[in-house]
Batch of 4 targets.
Target 1
Amino acid sequence: MMRVEVSFSYGERKALDGVDFSADKGRLLAVIGPNGSGKSTLLKCIAGILKPEGRIELDGEDITALSPRERAKLVSYVPQSSFPEFDFTVEEFVEMGTYFTGGSVERALKEVGMWEKKSESVLKLSGGEYQLVLIARALAQGGRVLLLDEPTSHLDVNHALEVMGLIKSLSRERIVVAVLHDLNLTLRYADDVLVLKNGKVIWFGPTEELTPDVLQRVYGIKFEFVRGNSGTAVVPSL
Ligand code: ADP
Ligand code: MG
């Protein structure tokens, strides 16, 4: 289990204000909230890229004091997806994830279903495939915690569902925290939801207890939850 209780400021600007939650293996945690609410800052604090005030405990151990190398063995981070710029093969690219930790490239690529494409250039991959390779690079690092920042933001709906299905299955074996911008994917895949606004926790709990009222408070517009055969859809209205 991971327990997080952090505050963070960029200079004078408070980006996280006493953000307090826990995450468990086997339960996919989604972080949602409007632009600028502090979602990416929160992941960067957990990943150790930013130095917050407060505590981050993994199975009772405070990990904030660990060296970057020790921290990298525990926590893997997939930044918000960019597009590949350099002509690495898939295998070379994923190998970068193992520099500090010596994990297995083969196992990571097999886990995301991209082992057959190991010799292809990352420049030739589709957006969905590149996202899988980014996840594989994080898996190769071998951490107990996997952090993902908007893993489906560049993907069309079928690839988004495929990547979310993979993330859901990865969450059985590790603690997974995913920033999601899509509320429908959140309702469909998340087990727990952390709702941020202006750097504060507005709501935290199991997905089935999230209500349209909470979303209205956060986004400032009305929502309706429509229950269908394949799940619940969020319908916004002005
Ligand atoms: P989100 O990911 O929810 O869109 P961010 O965590 O990126 O939000 O940003 C939270 C707040 O911190 C925003 O007000 C943003 O403008 C500010 N912020 C983010 N990065 C920086 C930075 N490098 N320097 C100063 N302010 C920043
Ligand atoms: Mg962000």
Note: The longest strand covers residues 13-23.
Target 2
Amino acid sequence: MAAVTWSRARCWCPSVLQVFRLPVAKLHLSRPTMRASQQDFENALNQVKLLKKDPGNEVKLRLYALYKQATEGPCNMPKPGVFDFVNKAKWDAWNALGSLPKETARQNYVDLVSSLSSSSEAPSQGKSGADEKAQGSKDILITSEDGITKITFNRPTKKNAITFQMYQDIILALKNASTDNNIMTVFTGTGDYYCSGNDLTNFTSATGGIEEAASNGAVLLRDFVNSFIDFPKPLVAVVNGPAVGISVTLLGLFDAVYASDRATFHTPFSQLGQSPEACSSYTFPKMMGPAKAAEMLLFGKKLTAREAWAQGLVTEVFPESTFETEVWTRLKTYAKLPPNSMKISKELIRKNEKEKLHAVNAEECTTLQARWLSEECINAIMSFVSRKPKL
Ligand code: COA
């Protein structure tokens, strides 16, 4: 792709920047939500000017395309000649958005700028390759090697159960990974489990009242799942062992799921007085048919890796003895494929579903917020936390 200078990219939305004379002080952008207001959009346009570093050609093209789509709708320019590299790249980026609604383009623009603003403040931004060490925490490890950002559930003594802090760490990790120099992002777990799902003590250990914990939990869960719905690069799960709850339901939002034959897939929502999350109430019936989805989501049937493969939840199953070697060799090869092509293809696959997925996510979170306050759920959680210790 022809080099595109940053100053030139700034000129890609000149009319709006000139018309809206907003203060140049650092502006606060509201958190990403489903519907960015015109004011959010204008703030984002201004925020772009304040970025501390050049976000690179790819991101600039994306900003340009989203800006054009948000303000003018689908691409209406004649296709530039093949040797007019810069304009051809811009045209391609805009045209690739197809009939994306103006409102969605505006939202995506705001989200992209918001992620750039926060990631440009992160110390890891700007490095590349194996040198890069993204920010993580002791329970969520983030490493970067061979074009792959690896996010590891790292709480093996608790079977990698996800605490509120870990949800936040993952949201941030995905935000950074969406604009880092790596080609794909991979989730896996440390120890014998992939992940045992939501930490069931998240609510019992909350400091405020249970209503407040449920309400905060629902907002956090919605943001968490949104960051998977919107993740722009290939997203792969390397399921090294048993997976429970949200670590299973999320798999419907991944692009590929590789599992050890030791892995199992369990969503005991009814047993816990809860209901499905991570869009599984939509993705699972679509993927495996309503009857098989009901066995998992209503009756809590635990699937073996091969059963999960037969239902379309898992891409491929590997023998435990060769799992790590085979999967990582394959992923390193995939990470050498042209990144733009993969991103564009992913966007094509995902874009017609995005709005639906966001709506499903919002509804599931509202439902869960009520379930968390139900007697059925409170009793189930209390009986888990008060289990007799093993001798
Ligand atoms: N939330 C909180 N703590 C969890 C947890 C979870 N989801 N999953 C495991 N743990 C903790 C256990 O309490 C235990 O802690 P302790 O050593 O302080 O007692 C530790 O992890 C090891 O788990 P343990 O139950 O002893 O191991 P196991 O091999 O017998 O069973 C599980 C593993 C995952 C089957 C079992 O812990 C379990 O059912 N966890 C709950 C899973 C769940 O319902 N998740 C939510 C779905 S919506």
Note: Strands lie at 140-145, 148-153, 184-189, 235-239, 243-244, 256-260, 264-266, 303-304, 316-318.
Target 3
Amino acid sequence: MKQYIGIDLGGTGIKGAVVREDGEILARQTCPTRPRRGPAAVAEDIGAMIRTLGRGREVAGVGLGCPGTVDDRAGTVVYACNIGWVNYDVRRTLEDTGFSVRLVNDANAAALAEAAVGAAKGTRSAVVVTLGTGIGGGVVLDGHLLTGFTGAASELGHMCIVADGESCACGRRGCWETYASATALIRRTEAAMAAHPDSALHRIAREKGGVDGRTAFAGQEAGDPAATRVVAEYIRYLGVGIANLVNIFFPEVIALGGGIANQGETLLRPLRAQVQSQEYGSAYTKKHPRIVTCTLGSDAGVIGAALFAAEKPE
Ligand code: BGC
């Protein structure tokens, strides 16, 4: 069976893996992104990762999943707001790895993987939403990934859910990702901590070495009222966006990925209730889209990038 290298470039970390064409991971590597260093330094690290993963292996191609709009023909990342890349010729920087590198949006990659070997396997329509530094999206309709005119479609995180709301890194206001990404949850957790010095969130953050996307959920489990409010508010905003997606695409499956999705039913149960209450004609609908977590977890991005490398270029 052929082997490919899949790279998932995130705002926080870079994941890489050697993936067999059936989706099986054979080797992996990770390193921090530290995007403030600029694209060239980050791309150097990606190149080093590709070389390490490819050493001594027969690799048929490399897929790079990027958090933004990519132009696979030109080999450029056109615009990625959360890492600050604009028209960056990443293929040229990676040329000396000796591998041909294909580019795909990170969440589109996750959707490809989930549709092929994960939560949406066997379905004809699915939406994958990744909750990380930003919110990513991949839409599969009638078995095909929705690309739009130039491949820039499915920027689900940048649908506006609050007119004139909070500022997004993309320059618009009120984008879904400013309310429902992991970054947004962390920001709200920190704000709740500042407002409630007696909250259990302080102890939890201390014990875990800082605030992350799990802190508020841990606080809720400990019965802390401030944490419970943060989680409820987070799920409310997440639910508004998911309900919009249900009303637009009505897919068979909506799969959530990214670290926050690891909360499983703690997140999904209240989320499903939120979404159903906002679904168009909900009371009369016999079947609702299934809202589940990505079964490939945080591997979806690397697997999908590798599977993309196996596809014929457009
Ligand atoms: C970007 C998307 C990306 C997502 C997750 C968003 O801010 O616009 O292209 O898929 O973050 O990384």
Note: Residues 31 and 45 are 8 Å apart (CA to CA).
Target 4
Amino acid sequence: MTTLPTAELHLHLEGTLEPETILRLAERNAVPLPYHDVDDLAARYDFADLQSFLDLYYANMATLRTAQDFADMTDAYLSRAAAAGVVHAEVFLDPQAHTAHGVPIEEVLDGVCAALGTAPARHGISTGLIVTMLRDHSAADAMRTLTDVLRTGAPIIGIGLDSAEVGNPPSKFVEVFARARAEGLHAVAHAGEEGPPSYVWEALDLLGVERIDHGVRSMEDERLVARLTEDQVPLTVCPLSNLRLKVVPDLASHPLPEMLRRGLMVTVNSDDPAYFGGYLDANLAAVASLHGVDGDGMRRLARNSINASFLDDVRKRELLARIDAAVAATNASA
Ligand code: ADE
Ligand code: ZN
């Protein structure tokens, strides 16, 4: 399957660290890890739920120490993303996870931003950086982190909210998001992945987010589905992540076809591709195989990804035209 030009809007840079890279970084930075080799590490990628994934994810991140490490990770993702059909990427980064290990925030942001800066020339991808706050840390820690990030002057486009969802509702971060929005940042939040539909309502009404990351549990609340449909709030859905974290029991049970049918503004993304069995192309191939998703559905998903991005109208029009041209070329050769 060739994928249509697509914007990736839900991608954690740290979730692109492949097992081989983790072991190489551990050696380069003399960070001890409890795994013998790649096979030993890869054997631990069998997750019971979000928390069991997060435990491994944060442990592996401790191997990132220098700006060069962060630049290498980012460039490797962009290279793989270009091959997957990504033409624009708005990527997440968890600064708190690194500063907690004693890595200066400037080191983290310098490395990531250096690689993002070369993305158009090296990979043909436009990019934006969204700093995500860890919701299982305190609101005060998130506020401090936002202050530190802003002080660096790094060209971030938005703020997000991620990590262990249940028990950490969006309402905990009202002041942090109000401040970020007052600074002119875009706002997004993970909600309705493992957490209830009420967390999606809170993210919309208390945090003022423009997109919901995941949001699949919104389907349990008819009033919420009506709100999301009416306002065309983008949902950045990640099918292989939902499968691997047991948000859905199997791919055939995934609500994405129903979400499309109901007129929700859904997009497809890869979340933590090194952990969940594939990059954007693999996620789109999984979606294309679902009952109820046809060529028109795939075209809608690609167009939604552009329209849901934080790009300006000129670049949006350019990318939408590329999608239409790719669809026309496919139809002509069929
Ligand atoms: N951090 C990285 N991946 C995540 C996910 N799927 N949910 C919440 N936090 C995350
Ligand atoms: Zn995520």
Note: The two ends are 13 Å apart (CA to CA).
